[in-house]
Design a protein that fits this description.
- There is one protein chain.
- This protein has one helix and 30 strands.
- The strands form seven sheets. Strands 1, 2, 28, 29 and 30 form a five-stranded antiparallel sheet that branches.
- The chain is globular, with a radius of gyration of 19 Å.
Length: 440
């Protein structure tokens, strides 16, 4: 692990010499409208029948929000008026809130029990605040782990439910620009003897792509599956196996490198856990052997990634140091999948943190996490870092609860950031979002 150093001038030179942001992806294979921007990479979960837990997020091509006029480090601020509590779920535990970014807005999805019925809800967030909350599902079955992905001016959502099926299956649904349901709902898995969880979407250069976990409760196995999607959310091919025998993926993050899509997850037993990076083909099949990202076998299971073809990017993940201290680590990866930096900490003691998320931003990265800066109070914090993980700015975002699940941060191509997360409170689980305004 490389210690942080205070070399501000050198860091500024590194940041301002970074490559220009990648262009938006080409039109999708079905000749639909081009995506405004990607911008979500999160995911993961627990068994749907094992009670509430860490829920699947979203994934997609991650853009950096554009260059700033002077090429310098942007100034970012978060104020109370830009903090919005979207909902309070009276039951359950923390979860990852699905989130993706488009050109000038964000799509946010979550599941909750409202009026006694468990459903999936969504909202479009703009610089002026959230729009009308949309009820994406309206049925008596239980819905879990929703994910969302920008799809031109509209969106695609994915989740699992047991509506008209013996076990939990993955469903997809196109959504309007306001995240209201539109088009046909698709059941993309049909394995009634198995349980699916952790559906995670990513907008690849070739089109929409879905990753999920197939859980065999009898055999005690968890198998990673993936398949490409059409623009209407339907399967564009058969499911492919990503994991190897004996692996048990948990929370996941997705990205794309020069050779194709990649997935990251923690693997191990007890206190010994490594973060693995596994390549996939365009069809979703396993490509090659997994690469170990962690260097100390102390991953805590939380992970997010900002990886795009040719440029590569970076991964953030939580670790448990000495079995007691939680810390956020960073590792840069080039476009070919090789490490371009050592694993390094983004926090300086006594600060602690976990639940980190990352997005490309202003020639480097923006990282959000849940932690304690040493004051004894938990908050959501924003770090602006360069391409090798050197911290350039540390910004307080919002007060938060110690528990609730991984934070998600995404950047629009119009140069703004937003964060979404869940807080475990005495009244239930609060779904919260905060706009972060940045300028030169």
């Amino acid at each position: 692990m490389v210690p942080m150093r205070c070399t501000c001038l050198a860091l500024l030179l590194v940041l301002t010499s970074c490559d220009d942001p990648p262009d938006p992806p080409p039109p999708r294979r079905d000749a639909g409208p081009p995506a405004d921007a990607g911008g979500a990479m999160d995911g993961g979960g627990v068994d749907p029948d094992a009670g509430e837990g860490v829920d699947g997020g979203d994934a997609g091509e991650d853009f950096d929000g554009g260059d700033f006029p002077d090429g310098g480090i942007p100034t970012c601020t978060a104020v109370e008026d830009d903090r919005h509590v979207l909902s309070t779920d009276p039951g359950g535990l923390g979860r990852i809130v699905g989130m993706d970014a488009a050109h000038d807005s964000w799509g946010i999805v979550w599941h909750e029990t409202r009026e006694g019925v468990p459903d999936v809800f969504g909202v479009r967030l703009t610089a002026t605040g959230p729009g009308t909350v949309q009820r994406i599902t309206d049925q008596l079955s239980r819905e879990n782990t929703p994910s969302v992905m920008a799809n031109g001016t509209e969106w695609i959502a994915a989740w699992v439910d047991n509506d008209e099926s013996i076990s939990f299956e993955v469903r997809t649904q196109t959504l309007s620009s306001s995240l209201a349901p539109s088009g046909t709902r698709h059941r993309v898995t049909t394995t009634d003897a198995l349980l699916e969880d952790s559906p995670t979407l990513i907008n690849l250069s070739s089109g929409p792509f879905l990753f999920y976990i197939e859980d065999d409760m009898v055999a005690g196995t968890r198998t990673a599956k993936a398949l490409p999607l059409s623009l209407d959310g339907s399967a564009a091919g058969p499911p492919q196996t990503v994991s190897m025998d004996g692996q048990r993926p948990g929370q996941v993050a997705l990205g794309e490198l020069g050779a194709g899509p990649v997935v990251l997850w923690s693997e191990g037993i007890g206190a010994t856990q490594d973060l693995l990076l596994q390549g996939m083909t365009a069809a979703g099949a396993r490509r090659g052997s997994p690469t170990t990202v962690t260097s100390e076998s102390n991953a805590d299971g939380t992970v997010d990634a900002a990886l795009v073809p040719d440029l590569g990017g970076a991964v953030v993940f939580g670790v448990l140091v000495g079995g007691v201290r939680r810390e956020v680590r960073f590792r840069a990866i080039d476009g070919d999948g090789a490490f371009s930096s050592d694993e390094r900490s983004l926090l300086t003691p006594p600060a602690t943190g976990t639940d980190a998320s990352i997005t490309r931003f202003a020639g480097g990265f923006a990282v959000a996490y849940r932690g304690d800066d040493g004051s004894g109070s938990t908050s959501i914090r924003l770090l602006l870092v360069d391409v090798l993980g050197e911290v350039l700015a540390d910004v307080p975002v919002s007060a938060a609860q110690p528990g609730g699940g991984r934070v998600t941060i995404r950047a629009t191509t119009s140069r703004q950031l937003a964060v979404a997360w869940a807080d475990d409170t005495v009244d239930g689980v609060e779904i919260v979002t905060q706009i972060i305004r940045c300028g030169s």
